[in-house]
Amino acid sequence: MSRTLQHFSVLHEIPELGFEEFKTSAYIASALETAGFNVTRNINGTTGIIAELDSDNPGPVLALRADMDALGHIIDGQHVARHTCGHDGHSSVVLTAAEEILREGLVRKGKLRILFQPAEELGTGAIAMVEGGALENVDMLLGFHLRPVEECPMGQAVAAMYYSASATVEAVFTGKSAHAARPHLGVNALDAAVQAVQAVNSIHLSPSLTFSAKATRFLCDAGVTNSIPSEARVCWDLRSAENAPMDELKQKVTAALQGSADALGASVEISILKQMPAAILDEDATGIISQAICQQLGEAALQPARTTPGSEDFFHYLRLCPQVKGGFWGLGANLTPGLHHPDMHFDHDALAIGVRIFKSCVRQVLGE
């Protein structure tokens, strides 16, 4: 079994939720220390890890980033953590690449920094890493993600993945309980929430923009069927291919929620639970990734840039540190039936390809 698959087999069996990656981070940090990296654990009080390799020669600082957290699912009535987004694969690739880069002496100038980040799925892991100094003095940051088979098949790769901005909005509608036989004495929170769902569905931005806003969770139960419910909790998922329209979309959704509550005499508390910015990619970084893909897989395997409605907290790094050149690529792995599906699986042979591509990027930036 290859070193990459050894790492993957271990990490796949210890899935942990965001900011709870204790076993995962301990395993990764130990492997990096054994390899010879200078390792700092518990970045900003989290499970985050920074490992660094200094060539002792002048040059740029290149950082590679991997996410570590698993997703929470309800399977057979049980709440479980499961790696259904491939973060175990991402960590295995970057960890193996780091080991081989050190062993083969590929860093001839500047510094290589390796970031293992918690809580990507929560949308706050990258922010915590930046606040912990992860990008201090970094010139370029590279990350990647396994792609569904319909986007990128095995043996191919995308040099530039343009992720969309996203936001999760929660509204808690509060009314007044009453007997269902006397609805005029109460304020039906369920009615206000239903009206809010319809109001959000009626929001329009310019037809030239790519966006969506849809209700994804609705919780309302008075405990009995003959009582007016006094509380309803609803979540909406917002998406936009660009950052500016997302700001407009959030404003319109907030107004729709508040207006729906006001119209029925209810009150509403609106919170943004999570938000991620749209992709910010640098041409130089993308060029380095493109060359690495061509070197390792051939020019025919290089797919054109892709835009995805998915979101990635990787882009918080570049939003918070605009001086850093960022590149984010997609790796074909015949991944089916889809990301975040409880039965997600992929061709594990793709992991070795990911290692080779990252090593090629390092040679270009930090080699002689």
Fold blueprint:
Elements: H1 3-12, H2 22-35, E1 38-43, E2 48-54, E3 61-67, E4 71-75, E5 78-82, H3 87-103, E6 111-117, H4 125-131, E7 140-148, E8 157-158, E9 161-163, E10 165-174, E11 178-179, H5 189-201, E12 211-219, E13 227-228, E14 231-240, H6 243-264, E15 267-276, H7 283-297, E16 302-303, E17 306-308, H8 314-320, E18 325-335, H9 350-366
Parallel strand pairs: 3-6, 3-7, 7-18, 8-16, 9-17
Antiparallel strand pairs: 1-2, 2-6, 4-5, 8-18, 10-14, 10-15, 11-13, 12-14
Helix pairs in contact: 1-3, 2-3, 3-9, 4-8, 5-6, 7-9
Strand arrangement across the biggest beta sheet: 1-2-6-3-7-18-8-16
Largest sheet: 8 strands, mixed
Structural class: alpha/beta
Q: How far apart are the termini?
A: 32 Å
pLDDT under 50 segments (min length 5)? none
Assess the beta-strand content as a share of residues. Answer: 25-35%
Q: How many β-strands, per DSSP?
A: 18
Helix residue percentage = 25-40%
Q: pLDDT average, as an integer? A: 97
Please characterize this protein's 3D structure:
By secondary structure, this protein is of the alpha/beta class. Helix content is 33%, strand content 30%. The chain has helices at 3-12, 22-35, 87-103, 125-131, 189-201, 243-264, 283-297, 314-320, 350-366, and strands at 38-43, 48-54, 61-67, 71-75, 78-82, 111-117, 140-148, 157-158, 161-163, 165-174, 178-179, 211-219, 227-228, 231-240, 267-276, 302-303, 306-308, 325-335. α1 (3-12) packs antiparallel against α3 (87-103) and α3 (87-103) crosses α9. The model has no long low-confidence stretch (mean pLDDT 97).
